Amino acid sequence: MARNIDWYYFQGKASWSKVQVPDLEYKNWTIRVHLNPESLNTFNKLKEDDGEVSGILNEVKRDDDGDFVNFKRPMFKNFGSGDEPLAPPEVLDCESRPMKKEEHIGNGSDVTIKCECYKYNKPFRKGKGRALRMVAVKVDNLVPYTRADFTERQEKAVEGLDQQPKQTVGW
Known about the structure:
This protein has helices at about 35-45, 150-160, and strands at about 5-25, 30-35, 55, 60-65, 65-75, 75-80, 85, 90, 110-120, 130-140. It has two helices and ten strands. The chain has about 170 residues and is mostly beta strands. The chain is elongated and about 70 Å long.
């Protein structure tokens, strides 16, 4: 059975990227993107109802840097017969080559997000809805991930390591 999927592309500045290593607490891959005006317009149109199909439920949020969206891809999805693992999003560099897992996407990187928009039946026979799921990320301009991007937990974890002597070779 063929699925009815439309593909959408969104561009903007990335932050809080967890697309190479998933967020294990919430069991998904995620990336926050401050959308450019064209992408924000496209996103907002998907939120509108289309006939008898409800718009996407994803929220546009605002912070000091402007409007942003959190794109996600779950690690597992129930398609009717229990949870099935989903593959991680593909992550490409600016030349469309797979990015190395150890090369993290730093805040401020320019990215293009590819999403699938699919229809689903709402619970309790309340009609149809649309949903958006991240499929791939292309890093158009990489800003390297640095210690300035660390969370408070990460900073606490590495505290003191800088003061330790470097190992000598051949111990």
